[in-house]
Design a protein that fits this description.
The protein contains 19 helices and 24 strands. With 550 residues, the protein is an alpha/beta fold. Helix 2 packs across helix 8, helix 3 runs parallel beside helix 5 and helix 8 packs across helix 9.
Length: 550
């Protein structure tokens, strides 16, 4: 009989394992689950050196899995950048910039975010840029929006980036100009912000040590919310190197799957595409797996860059028949998916409009028909899916990566409602329909697009379709609510399966990594409106406690 190093007893233990969903005791050895069950059956694994901890009825469940975040960007923001509440009005953003600028030298950049999508119209005026100039006191400024697809810059930053009134819009991007003066407002949509991002990197590129610090800090924050596995949805060479170095030094206490960028309309990373894919394998380690690529197929709805089957509401810049655009033709997408599959990799495809979702499903169906059955294909975000395409997820084996938490009213949903017709704008995140149609639905925070990676907010919202904070009233398409057990699976077992870690983590079963959390409440035993307030008292990774709330 194998002997446990650690036995946890007397818990309310929810395993997310359908063969045995509930237990009281857990035995651990060599970082893995040795046994799970009742007190007597687990006690058989007790030996002279076994540590036994009585949890006194505390709730225990698998570590949470975040299938979509940008951990390094979040770590950088936490350690080195200005942080702005996405709900802030323009005066609030300017005040934060002014306060930050006062502590910087005259040539240092003010970088950070995130200004809210609801400010797009207000920032589309030259007057807003001049107000930013004044707030920064002459320092260059680059601020990302809450989607991290778009940027706002002041006059000095535009000059450094070489952007002027005569600069043409790049492919896939827009330099927003004042409708009266024609001057750039500093608002740069999608690829228009790449030159600015590169200017920041040229003058203040993060060091290798800063990348390691950012990843380490991000994992600490994730641990505080109970996350023990995650997929970074847009990695660079520098990010993968940092993860590899942390892991080889024994400092990466999470399962991390990297998504290497095929195209890059927003970050300004280099290299991308085939060159980056060729390097990925050198950064593989015990806990870091560069198994995915990331393809951006469209933009985001608030800036009218997401691709839809029906047009946006009319505006002065786009007219009455604007549907958004794809970043690449369908044949090019299919070609990349074929290349990825031949390399033994999987793909995460960014799609926020229903037209891009359809194109992605068509491309996957094409490569599946050619015999490429093993690769995982995720459609990321997928807030809008035409009803005819819902069953196609299961039919083509496409995973629905639902992220960020846009299944209840909030800042971004309100911004979308300003540019889309009312009825389709209100039909976001058909989660119930996808699950009922047999799709694997996995949850992600898209942190730092979400203010925090707190999955409990997402879980409560999945069940109620209402704002967990109570700030906004009403429900968003309540017919698409799912059950609590389903919502927990979305952020545990489903996420692990979506990332290719289903045999490793995501549930508590013999042989799997001993990744689990101890919380302050049993979510099944409290009112649904209290689930988002759940706090994680302890987080354990591979049988080792990595977070304890004090």
């Amino acid at each position: 009989m194998p002997v446990a190093e650690l036995i946890l007893t007397g818990a309310e233990l929810y395993t997310v394992d359908s063969s045995r969903p509930w237990a009281t005791d857990l035995a651990i050895a060599d970082g893995r689950v040795l046994a799970v069950g009742g007190r007597d059956e687990v006690a058989r694994h007790r030996g002279p050196g076994t540590t036994v901890v009585d949890l006194g009825g505390a709730f225990v469940m698998p570590g949470l899995v975040d299938v979509h975040n940008h951990h390094s960007l979040a770590g950088m923001a936490d350690l080195f950048e200005l942080s702005v509440d996405a709900a802030a009005d323009l005066s609030g953003v300017l005040a934060a910039v002014a306060e930050r600028a006062r502590g910087l030298g005259p040539d240092e950049w003010v970088t950070g975010g995130s200004w809210g999508s609801h400010l797009v119209e207000e920032l589309s005026r030259e007057a807003a840029r001049r107000a930013l100039d004044e707030a920064a006191g002459g320092r260059p400024v680059m601020l990302s929006d809450d989607s991290h697809h778009n940027r706002w810059a002041n006059s000095r930053a535009l000059k450094v980036a070489g952007i002027s009134a005569t600069t043409p819009d790049p492919d896939g991007g827009v330099i927003v100009r004042d409708p009266v003066t024609g001057e750039p407002t500093g608002l740069l949509l999608e690829t228009a912000g790449i030159a600015l991002a590169q200017a920041v990197r040229d003058s203040a590129a993060p060091t290798a040590e800063q990348h390691r610090l950012a990843s380490r800090r991000a994992v600490e924050i994730l641990h505080s919310f109970g996350v023990t596995a995650f997929q970074d949805a847009g990695t660079s060479r520098d990010i993968m190197r940092a993860l590899h170095e942390l892991d080889t030094a024994g400092e990466l206490a999470a399962w991390v799957v990297s998504s290497m960028l095929i195209n890059d309309p927003i970050f300004g990373f280099a290299p991308v595409g085939a060159e980056l894919l060729a390097e990925g394998e050198r950064y593989r380690s015990t806990h870091h797996r560069p198994d995915f690529v990331k393809i951006f197929l469209d933009g985001v709805p608030p800036t009218r860059t997401a691709a839809f089957l029906d047009p946006y509401l009319p505006d002065h810049a786009h007219g009455a028949h604007h549907h958004g655009v794809l970043t690449m033709p369908p044949d090019e997408l299919a070609g990349w998916l074929r290349t990825v599959a031949e390399a033994g990799l999987s793909a995460k495809i960014h799609c926020t409009g229903d037209a891009s979702v359809r194109v992605a499903l068509d491309a996957v169906a094409k490569v599946r028909a050619e015999g490429y059955r093993d690769s995982r294909f995720q459609i990321a975000h997928g807030q809008f899916v035409h009803p005819a395409d819902v069953p196609r997820f299961a039919e083509t084996g496409v995973i629905a990566d639902i992220s960020p938490f846009l299944w209840f009213p909030g800042v971004i949903t309100e911004a979308i409602a300003e540019v889309r017709p009312a009825e389709p704008a209100a039909r976001m995140q058909p989660n119930r329909a996808l699950i009922d149609a047999g799709a694997l639905v996995a949850g992600g925070s898209d942190w730092p697009v979400s203010a925090s990676p707190n999955a409990w907010e997402g879980i409560q919202g999945l069940v109620t379709r209402r704002d967990p904070s109570g700030t906004r009233s009403g429900a968003l398409w309540p017919e698409q609510a799912i059950a609590l057990a389903e919502a927990i699976a979305v952020f545990t077992a489903n996420g692990a399966a979506a990332m290719g870690l289903g045999e490793v983590t995501g549930s508590l079963a013999p042989g799997k990594s001993a990744d689990f959390i101890v919380t302050d409440r049993n979510p099944f035993a409290v009112p649904v409106t209290e689930i988002a307030a759940t706090t994680v008292r302890e987080t354990w990774f591979a049988g080792r406690r990595v977070h304890q709330r004090r």
